[in-house]
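Structure in, sequence out. Go:
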């Protein structure tokens, strides 16, 4: 019997990879909850920062773009750069894509992946109790388990961040109405921090954004104010964005320090142009040099901060949300067996990938966020599926097809 390929993940990257495998007639078993990060780990009422053109889940055949979904669902088409995509529409698009192209998705967790004793293929265990052998494995687990809370904040919650403790991570909130009438500090200056702050304020919370550094809270230019004489990319007009979007091939050949720096910095903290109006006047901003520590005092949460003037101050609120992003760390991917993890070539906790998204373990591939340190910041976004999926599946078909 031909062993299938296992795809772990049913977000945009897993679904797109699965569609490409299917397009080539390669048997695959696909695992995960469809679009769960978008459904559970992002706030209700959120809108996508990416434009419609940069929000397609790539498929090998036509007819599966966001515009195609809008037509099928009978909703107004989302096409122009200033059309804003509600997260609920994007979830419905992903679900529609899954139902059409990955109908046999198994909503089961993969508990462990280990290399087979004979070195050929992998042994997978599912939380249904089933075990099976796969000839290759694609890890597309996205944001799962990678939420990052910096140590100076984590100290406030020895049992871990939760919405009912002193401090939580932004990924733990779907419904921000729970903060109505409460005082809230949101740490961060990226889109997630700024939009979480706006949505909480609109729900009736008193919100301050605590941004580390001067002038860190900023918003992008609307499409009609983008520079005209620079090439267009899904993220705006700039040579750097154009190169990173359409030519990520040589990215993995850059020095490690440069790669890790660019992944963090390019397309980094910047609010969407359409959020500015809702933010200003509704949310206060406190710029600080750094946060020294967080703790609980009299049932409130306090951040001890170093101000831009060099003083130490205390900011108190009912709750703190750390909108401090995600950090890829293989150690957090507990489903990868210990031996497999020690065998993998890594760079600062991320898998080092070669051509075709292959890792140093033959037959083991990574796509999406875990591939960003090798293929660049475009891998943090849905539009990265267009580059990644055909190449990954092309390599897999040639090497293990
Ligand atoms: C607040 C916020 C806003 C964002 N806005 C945008 C935007 O506007 N545009 C954009 O392009 N990107 C945006 N992103 C980034 C976006 O989340 C990623 O581009 C995208 O979700 C990555 O898709 P993915 O398929 O790699 O992973 P995910 O969407 O995170 O999916 C992970 C999948 O893995 C599955 N899984 C995990 N572990 C296991 C396991 N052990 N067994 C089985 N299945 C497992 C889950 O069930 C899930 O199906 C945003 C991110 C955040 C946090």
């Amino acid at each position: 019997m031909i062993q299938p390929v296992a795809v772990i993940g049913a977000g945009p990257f897993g679904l797109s990879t699965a569609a490409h495998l299917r397009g080539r007639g390669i048997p695959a078993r696909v695992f995960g909850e469809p679009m769960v990060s978008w459904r559970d780990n992002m706030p209700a009422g959120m809108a996508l920062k990416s434009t419609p053109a940069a929000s397609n889940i790539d498929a090998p055949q036509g007819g599966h773009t966001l515009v195609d979904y809008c037509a099928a669902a009978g909703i107004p088409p989302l096409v122009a750069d200033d059309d804003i995509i509600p997260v609920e529409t994007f979830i419905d698009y992903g679900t529609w894509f899954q139902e059409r192209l990955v109908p046999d998705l198994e909503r089961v967790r993969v508990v462990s992946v280990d290399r087979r004793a004979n070195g050929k293929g992998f042994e997978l265990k599912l939380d249904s109790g089933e075990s099976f052998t796969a000839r290759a494995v694609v890890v597309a687990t996205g944001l799962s388990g990678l939420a990052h809370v910096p140590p100076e904040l984590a100290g406030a919650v020895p049992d871990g961040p939760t919405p009912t403790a002193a401090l939580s991570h932004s990924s733990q909130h779907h419904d921000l109405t729970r903060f109505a009438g409460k005082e809230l500090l949101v740490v961060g200056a990226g889109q997630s921090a700024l939009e979480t702050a706006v949505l909480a304020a609109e729900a009736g919370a008193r919100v301050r954004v605590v941004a580390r550094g001067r002038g860190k809270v900023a918003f992008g230019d609307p499409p009609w104010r983008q520079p005209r004489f620079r090439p267009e990319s899904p993220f705006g007009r700039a040579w750097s964005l154009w190169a990173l979007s359409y030519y990520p091939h040589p990215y993995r050949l850059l020095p490690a320090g440069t790669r890790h720096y660019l992944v963090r910095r390019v397309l980094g903290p910047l609010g969407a142009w359409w959020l500015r109006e809702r933010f200003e006047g509704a949310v206060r901003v406190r710029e600080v040099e750094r946060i020294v520590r967080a703790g609980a005092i009299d049932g409130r949460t306090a951040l001890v901060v170093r101000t831009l003037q060099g003083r130490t101050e205390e900011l108190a609120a009912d709750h703190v949300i750390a909108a401090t992003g995600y950090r890829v760390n293989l150690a957090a991917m507990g489903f990868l067996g210990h031996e497999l993890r020690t065998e993998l070539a890594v760079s600062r906790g991320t898998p080092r990938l070669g051509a075709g998204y292959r890792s140093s373990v033959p037959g083991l591939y990574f796509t999406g966020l875990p591939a960003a340190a090798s293929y660049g910041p475009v891998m943090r976004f849905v539009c990265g599926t267009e580059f990644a999926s055909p190449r990954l599946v092309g390599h897999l078909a040639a090497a293990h097809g």
